[in-house]
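Support reply, case 0932

Customer input (verbatim):
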Amino acid sequence: MLSDKCRNILLNPFRLLFFAALLISQGCGNKGTSESGLTEGVVEYEISYPNLSKDHPLSNLLPTSLKVYFKDNKTSTEMKSMGIMRTSFIGIPEDDEMYVLFRMFEDRLSSTLSGSDIRMLHQHMGEIQISMENDTKTIAGYKCKRATARFQNGSMDDAALYYTNEINVDNASWTLPYPTIPGFLMEYDMLQNDILMHFEAKKVLKTSVPDDVFEIPDDYKMVPLDVIQKKMADLSEAFQNF
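Our regenerated output:
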């Protein structure tokens, strides 16, 4: 049975913002990376919506890019939307939790999302069979291996997943529906609210990442996740009624 926090996300049309930002806060039991791989930096992703028509009410609200900061097996995913809202997710796999940070105008709010809530959010995709393939391609300058995801309940067509072992983040998929992928995902698809979301890494920056990227700023107020969800829902309604 879904928890109240999980149900609120599923009922909120703005939950797609959450799923976009859940991209790679990764970590679910498979190391799979090269010991000599990149251990610190930033991956910039492009988000597209292949099946979303231009006149869809969310077409101008949904994010088209995000950044994933990584260091010492920690990740922080940052996404901006409409130029006025910033959402960040800090993955803490050892605690099976994720910190949610929400910033809009003067609001600075934070909350937590448990690993069980995150896994519940993927249940609609059903059982997924993963097949490792032999072919590879280069994404953002990194050699990536291909896997194929087959959705046993027919929720999606077969999807190609591309991952690299040249970015060294242990346990690289704990918030995703593909936790057995043995590497850092660089391209994949997800489905939410019948909207197909396509993620593809476009740039990897080899740069130092400050420790405070993985910390909750002092000026953020800890609140129940429902409070952040309501802020998002109110914003979505305001733009749709504009």
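We compared this against your earlier run and they match. Two observations from our side: The two ends are 36 Å apart (CA to CA). Helices lie at 4-11, 15-21, 115-120, 225-240. Please reopen the case if you see a mismatch on your end.
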